């Protein structure tokens, strides 16, 4: 609504106006989405990465994405949300599941950065994202297997084809510092709490979304988090 905010309202004489902001030609609609942007900033603690730790890049891609004003009620996965949940599940300070390592284990991981791997279109549901983490070097193969196993379980649960949910683990270039344990855990928990998807529908029209939330832009690193 940037254009409308700049319009001189003194030029208008009526009390009711027709909204022509439709997706298709020859259609007049009676409602349109508004929105706001929120920026989160805070301090984090950085520590040198231990010499016996390795650095990995985790990525999620291939998700359906879509337009937040058209597809938000379809329940499509958000790549940032998926990556956050995977990191929480594999973080041994935030989960006590499978502590004996009988299936998917959890690890002493620390976050270096997270970002959206696509043009951050204002209204597009994020379809790909990546994170750089560090963890003990002797766990590289096991961690990669567990990360992919978690993603595969989520893909099957979401009834997506393999081409619609792609996960990958690769070694990353050497980076000197990472967030410490407390900063890593705090940021991951914050990202989990930020809402995504349908919040409320119109009571008399249950298929029509009234309020929803979408993560738009996410450069998360050693200075700030932006939503």
What's the helix and strand layout?
Layout lengths: L1 H4 L33 E3 L4 E3 L4 E9 L6 H4 L7 H11 L20 E7 L12 E8 L3 H18 L8 E6 L5 E3 L1 H13 L3 E6 L2 E9 L10 E3 L1
Antiparallel strand pairs: 1-10, 2-7, 3-5, 3-6, 4-5, 8-9
In short:
The chain has helices at residues 2-5, 68-71, 79-89, 140-157, 181-193, and strands at residues 39-41, 46-48, 53-61, 110-116, 129-136, 166-171, 177-179, 197-202, 205-213, 224-226.
Explain what this protein looks like in three dimensions:
Residues 222-227 have low confidence and may be disordered. Helix 3 (79-89) crosses helix 5 (181-193). The chain has 5 helices and 10 strands, in the order αβββααββαββαβββ. The strands form 4 sheets. Strands 4-5-3-6 form a 4-stranded antiparallel sheet. A two-stranded antiparallel sheet has the order 1-10. Strands 2-7 form a two-stranded antiparallel sheet. The protein has 227 residues and is an alpha+beta fold.
Keywords:
alpha+beta; 227 residues; elongated; two-stranded antiparallel sheet
Task: Determine the structural class based on helices, strands and strand pairing.
Answer: alpha+beta
Q: What fraction, in percent, of the residue positions are helical?
A: 10-25%
Number of helices: 5
The low-pLDDT segments are 222-227
Strand order of the largest sheet: 4-5-3-6
**What is the strand content?**
25-35%
Major pleated sheet: 4 strands, antiparallel
Kindly state the number of beta strands.
10
- The coarse silhouette is elongated
Alpha-carbon distance between the two ends: 19 Å
What is the gyration radius calculated from CA atoms? 21 Å
The chain-level mean pLDDT equals 84
Helices and strands, in N-to-C order? HEEEHHEEHEEHEEE
Give the oligomeric state.
single chain
């Amino acid at each position: 609504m940037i254009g409308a905010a700049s319009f001189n309202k003194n030029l208008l004489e009526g009390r009711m106006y027709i909204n022509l902001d439709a997706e298709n030609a020859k259609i007049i609609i009676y409602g349109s989405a508004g929105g706001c942007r929120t920026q989160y900033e805070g301090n984090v603690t950085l520590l040198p990465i231990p010499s016996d730790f390795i650095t990995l890049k985790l990525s999620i891609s291939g998700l359906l994405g879509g337009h937040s004003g058209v597809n938000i009620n379809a329940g499509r996965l958000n790549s940032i949300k998926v990556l956050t949940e995977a990191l929480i599940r594999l973080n041994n300070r935030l989960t006590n599941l499978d502590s004996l390592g009988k299936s998917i284990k959890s690890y002493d991981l620390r976050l270096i950065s997270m970002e959206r791997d696509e043009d951050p279109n204002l209204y597009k549901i994020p379809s790909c994202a990546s994170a750089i983490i560090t963890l003990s070097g002797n766990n590289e193969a096991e961690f990669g297997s567990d990360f992919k196993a978690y993603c595969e379980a989520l893909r099957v649960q979401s009834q997506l084809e393999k081409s619609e949910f792609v996960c990958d683990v690769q070694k990353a270039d050497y980076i000197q510092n990472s967030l410490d344990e407390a900063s890593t855990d705090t940021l991951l928990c914050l990202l989990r709490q930020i809402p995504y998807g349908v919040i409320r529908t119109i009571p008399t029209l249950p298929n029509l979304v009234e309020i929803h939330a979408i993560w738009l832009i996410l450069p998360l690193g050693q200075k700030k988090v932006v939503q």
